[in-house]
Amino acid sequence: MAIWPAPMVYAGPTEVEFHAKSRRSAGASYFVVGRDPAGMKGSELAVAHPDDDLYDGNHGRYVLRNSPGIGSMKMLSFVKVMYDISDNVMKVPDESRMEDFISISGSKMRLLARNGAVPCSPTHIPTDLVEANCVPSGFMVPKGWDIVVDYYKNIEANRWVPWSRPQVDPGADSRTSFEGKFGTGSFQLKHRDYTSFWHDIPLRPSGQPDEIINLVTEIPLFMTAKMECQKALPGNPIGQDSNSDGSPRYYTYGTPFFNYGYIPQTWEDPQLKDALGNGGDNDPLDVMEIGSRRLEMGSVTPCRVLGHLELIDEGEMDNKIICIALSDPDANSIRTMEDLERVKPGTIDRLRDWLKRYKTSDGKPENTLASEHPTRTSEALELINETHNRWKNLCGKGSGYVSDDHGFWLDAPGCKGQ
Questions:
Q1: How many CB atoms lie within 10 A of CB 68?
Q2: Higher-pLDDT residue of 172, 158
Q3: 188-234 per-position pLDDT tens digit
Q4: Average pLDDT of 373-383?
Q5: How far apart are CA 150 and CA 116, in angstroms?
Q6: Given a cut of 50, is residue 1 above it in pLDDT?
Q7: d(CA 371, CA 306)
Q8: How many angstroms separate the CA atoms of 292 and 259, rounded?
Q9: Across the strands, what pairs with 285?
Q10: DSSP for residue 349
Q11: Any idea what DSSP says for residue 69?
C-alpha cells in the first residue's frame, strides 16, 4: 500500500482505472475501490435490472476486475458504513435493525456543509438530516465539521486553492482584460477596444469579401473549459458555462481539436425554424475553426467560411460554421470543404463525431445532425446573412419585431446603446 501523488477528481470509471493501473505498475498488489463507477450505465443485456446504473458497493470491484491490464491485482470492496442512532457511531449496518441506521453519503455531507448544518439534538436524531439541516454527534469531530462547512460555504472564494486543479492563465488575447479567477464563475473577459464582444465587433473585417467573417474565439484549441458569451451581462463578456449544480463546466469527451467561438452581430432566433421544425438555440452563430494554430481567448480573427453543419442539440437548431483563419499556414490551400478533406483528410469525420458524441461522456444521449454532409460556402453565407438580419431585429434595427422578454444585455453602441 502506498500514498500516490495523483489527486482524485472523481471523474468516473476511466479515472478509477488509471489510478488502479498506475499503482499496479508501481508494484501495488491491492486496490480499495468503492462506488467510483457510480453513474456508469448498466447493460441492456443484463438479465436483472438492465436499466439500473452501477451504484452497488461491489460494482466498482467488478468493473475493475474485468478491465484489461489489471492482472493479478486484488480488488478490495469498500464497505459502506452508516450512522447508528442508537449509539451515535458510524459502522457497518446491522441488517436486523436497519431502522436505526441513517445513510450519510458524500453528496449529502457536501450539501449539509454548503447549507451550514449545525449539530443535531443529542436526544433526537431526525431521519431527514437535510430537512433538519443538522449533523448528528459522532459523525465528525466538531472542529473538523467547522472546517468542512467553512470550505463548502466559501468554495468560490480566493482563499482556497484547489490542489487538484491547475492554476493557469486563461491565455487571453493581449487586447482583452479579465476580472475574477479563471476556472470559477467569477471569471469575466472583456475587450479593451469594444464595449460588447457580441454587438460592437463587426460581422466582417472591412474591405473583405463576403466569405470572410470575424471569429470571436471563446475556446482556444485544446482547451477543455467551456467558455461562452454571457448574453445577459453588461458588455457580454466571455465567461465559463456552469453545470446544473453551479460548478464550472468542462468538456469531458476530450480536448477540442479546433478553435471554437462565434460570429458577432448574429443571432440564432428561436422563431427561425429549420425544415424539421427545430428553432434556433438563442445564441450567436457558432464557429469551428479547423486550422492548426491556437487562437487566444477573446481574439478577433478574419476567417474564411467553408460551409456548415446543422446540429440538433436537445431539440434546438445549433448550426456550426466551419472556417479556417486567414492567418493559418493552410489558408491559401483550403477554400472549400473539398479542399479541407484533401489537405487535412479525416477532419470532417472528426467534426461529425465530436458534434454527435461530445455530450455522451456526461451521460447524455448522442446528438443528431440534420445532414451528414456539410453545406457549401454559399449555403453557409445564406445562414450567416439570415442570422445577421435576426440580430438586427433583436437590436431594433431590422424590419422584424422581437419582444423584450429575452433577458439579453443590448445597451452596447452597436445595438441599442448610445
A1: 7
A2: 172
A3: 999 999 999 999 999 999 999 999 999 999 999 999 999 999 999 99
A4: 96
A5: 8
A6: no
A7: 16
A8: 9
A9: 263
A10: H
A11: T
Q: Please, what is the average pLDDT of the chain?
A: 87
Q: Which range (20-29, 213-222, 276-285, 309-318) has the least confidence?
A: 20-29
> What strands lie across the sheet with 89-91, from one edge to the other?
89-91, 82-84, 101-102
Can you tell me the distance from the alpha carbon of 293 to that of 258, in angstroms, rounded to the nearest whole number? 9
Residue bearing cell 475501490: 33
Q: Which residues sit opposite 82 in a β-bridge?
A: 91
For 221, residues 6+ apart whose C-beta sits below 8 A from its C-beta are 256, 257, 258, 259, 293, 294, 295
Q: Provide the CA 318 distance to its chain's centre, in angstroms.
A: 16
Q: Which amino acid is at 221?
A: L
Q: Which residue has the cell 469575466?
A: 188
Q: Are 315 and 331 in contact (CB under 8 A)?
A: no
Q: Which residues are CB-contacts of 238 (< 8 A; sequence separation ≥ 6)? A: 188, 189, 197, 218, 227, 228, 229, 230, 297, 298
Could you read off the pLDDT of 27-47 as tens digits, one per residue? Answer: 888 887 765 555 555 666 666
Question: Is the CB of residue 196 less than 8 Å from the CB of residue 271?
Answer: no
The answer to whether the beta carbons of residues 36 and 16 sit under 8 Å apart is: yes
pLDDT for position 27: 80
Helices (DSSP H) in 198-271: which residue ranges?
Answer: none
